[in-house]
Every structure is written in C-alpha cells, then in structure tokens.
Amino acid sequence: MSHPAPTPLIDTQALRRLRRKERLGHFIYHPTTTTAVAVLIVVSVLLTMEHLHLEKDDPYQRPLLLFDLVVTVLFIVELSIKAYVAESWRRFFAQYWIDLIAVIPWFQSLRVLRILRLLRVFSVALIVSRRIRAVSSIMRSAIGEYLILAAILCTLFGIGTYTLYLSEHTHRATAGPDSNPDDDLDDLGNAAWATVFFLVANEPMIGAPRSQLGKGVALVVMFGGLTTFAVFTGVVSALMVGRLRRRTEIDDMDRFQLTDHMVICGWNHRAPLILEELGFARTLEVPAVVVVAELDELPPEVAKLAIGPRVFLVRGDSTTPALLEQARIAYARRAIIVADSTRPRADQDRDARTVLAALMVERMNPKITTCAELLNRENEVHLRAAGVEEVITTPEAGGQQLAMAALYPGLGDVVSELISAKSGATLSKEAATDEVVALTFTAAMEKLKRDRNVILVGLEVNGREGKKSPVCKMLVNPPPGTLIGPRDNLVLIVSTGRV
User: Fold this and answer.
1) Angle between helices 31-53 and 61-85 (to 10 degrees)
2) What is the CATH number of domain 423-495?
3) Which residue has the higher pLDDT, 398 or 58?
4) pLDDT tens for residues 350-387?
5) What CATH superfamily classification does 258-397 receive?
6) Residues contacting 376, CB < 8 A, separation 6+
C-alpha cells in the first residue's frame, strides 16, 4: 500500500524569494547606494535645466538626451527594486508617487514637462535628513524638516523660473515684443527674479506674464510660497511641543539597515528607564532600538534620552509575527519583553502575552538573547521552555531589595548603584582575555584590581558558548583556586566615570 509523499514543512521557493528581497533591500537602501542616487538626482536636475535652456538645434541636445535616457532607466530600475522589496504596493505608491511622476520619459514634443525631474529633489532632502539622523542627535532640532522645506522652495524656484522663461519665450517668438524688453520674462534672469518675488511677495515686481501658461505658473508659485511659509511656521511651532511623530516611525530605509539591534516588545512605565540605562551602557553599544507596542507615538521623554535618536517605533501588537518581521527580529541581537500595560489587562493576561511574544521571538530568531519580565513567578517555566535566557519577576525583585535594605541598612543603595550605569560603579560582563586565562580566581582578581581598578566578583564558566548551552554555568564568588578558562566570561564591578 503506497503512502502519499509527505508535504514539505518549509516552502523553499518562498524562502528563496524572501532571501532575495532581503539582499535587494540591503543593496538598494545601503548608504552608498542611496548617496549615489542622491548625487545622480542632483546631476540629472542640473542637466535637465541645461537641456531646457538650450535651443532645439543645439549640438549638445543629443548627448544630453542620451544621458537623460540612461538616467531615466537607472531611476526606473531603482524604483522597481524598491517596489519589489516594499511590504505592500499601497505603501510604496504612498511613499514614492512623486518619484514615479518625476521619471516618466516625456516625449520630445512635451520637453517642457521634463522640468518635473526637479520633483526628485524631495528624495534628496529625505535621504540627507535620514542619514543625518542616523549618525547625529542634531535631528532633534528638526533639521530634516528644514531640508525638506528648502527642497520644496528650490523646486518651486526651478520649475517657476524655467517654465516662465520657456512659456514667455515661446509667446514672444509668436506674438512679437509688446513690452519693454527690460521687463520681459523671456529673459532668464528676469524670470528667476520674478519667481523669487512671486514666492516671497506674492505679486509681480518685475513684470507680469503674458502667456496663459505663464500666468498659471505664477499662480502656482505664489500659492506654493504661501503654503511653504505656512508649513515653515508650523514646523517651528512643532519644535515648541516636541519632535514630530513620524521621526520615530521605521521606514524601508531604516528597516533594511537594522542589524545587531535590540527589540523591545510591549510598553509600560519601566520602558523609558530601560532605554535610559541602554543609553548609559558603555560596554555594549546598541546601534538601534526598535519598540513594538500599541502606541500612537513614543512618549516625549524618550526623545530627550541619549539613545533617543536611535529609537524607532513599530505600532501594533508585539505578538504579531508581521510586526516582529517589520522590526527585523530575525536580525536582532537582543530582545526585551516587558509586561505590556498599553491596554487594561489582568496580570495573568499580561504574563500570557509575554509568553506568547517570547515564543514568537525565539521561533523567528533562535540565536537571539531574550530577557522577559514576569509578574508571577509561576509562569517562568513557560518562558524557560521557550528558550528565554533571562527572566525577571519585577515584584519579587523589588521585594527582595526592600528586605535586604531592612536587614542591612545601606545595602539598598549599594544594590541600586550596581544595577544602574548612571553613576558610581556598575556590574559588567566581558570575555576573559589572555592576561587572566589560566590564572586562579584570586590571582585574576588581584591583577584586575591592580591593573584596571575593577573588581572580579563572579565567573561565567563557558559563557562564550551562550546561556542556552548546557555547559554554561554562572559562579558568583567561586572558590579561590578556580581556574579561568579561555571560553569563560568575567563578572566585574567597574567604574562608570560618573559621580
């Protein structure tokens, strides 16, 4: 009797497609690629202006048209890749509709419409603002918004100047001069100054356009100037009340650059304190933190933290696989799951969601180091079964610290200082180096105190194998003759350098 062939558990074709999208996403959103695109946009805009300025029979027209064709093909390839790796077509069109309009290869008879290539200046502003934000906290002052506003003004100026010039030049050629040449807008300089006055003063200061197209352009430029300065006023006002919300939202450019980051699942009143401690940690550099929580926006105090510019938000339920994938949990190095309090739930339900989130995180990234918060110690067995390395029961931790403070007055302050990196001394862990390998615990403690002024208090035997390894074991204050091995980690008390 024959049996049907077993159904494969993994869709290999879908897996290959996912890996291909990841590779293309890394490439198209890599800083080098985005910088090259920005430079190509600027060069393309400049040559487009030159192309519109030249006469139709100019010998340089053909080389410029060939270059424009090559650039258009490159832009189409770029946008095609971004459409392929995007999470949805709707999101792609919402983010890149201006770019799609800008790369339409207009016919030669409609060459004036090539001025729409200037619309891609917005992409340059976005790329620059994203890159500045990625490396500097200066973006808290809304320089990104100023760059975008400057791009809008430059685009209005460029479109207004060249469209006025071309429309008035055509009108003058067909109707003949009917005004003082000094005030005519078919001169490129006059068209530029007229556009500036339309933007700033909203009235013609040099001359009024005579062609219908020129009049329409003047109205658009004046309306654009009013709108832009209104937006500028709004941005300045927004600085008074906090950062704009969209700055913390993760997009495709950020998403494909996230590796070795940290993911926080859920949110409660202790989450800002966690972020604050991560910002103070010197021994562990956190490239970015992605918060997956049912929040409309991150609280304002997060932006004021040292790590604030590197914190992103994925809005939604942290137990949803699609949102964890958006947070690139598969490429994260560590995860923290807090007892979520964004919605009113009983403690047992909050622990159940913590267990569910831990199961999803460990399933999507078995190599990740996970720390989870519980409200009831009885649920720890479920987290351990899921593969969670660290489980903290916060009510118990607070009670234990209170009991120690009551039994031994003064030790409460010591514990508070050791578990925080804000000031004084703090606990740290590092790999055993050649200088202490093969030494006894006592000898290593004396050497480290003498050479580095740090105190050795514990030893994680075979710690480099990972917490999930059965040979890994934590020893606090081990026997004096314990030898330090090459795969061990040292538990130290180090100075933070802060008072």
Assistant:
1) 150
2) 3.30.70.1450
3) 398
4) 999 999 999 999 999 998 999 999 999 888 998 988 88
5) NAD(P)-binding Rossmann-like Domain (3.40.50.720)
6) 347, 348, 351, 393
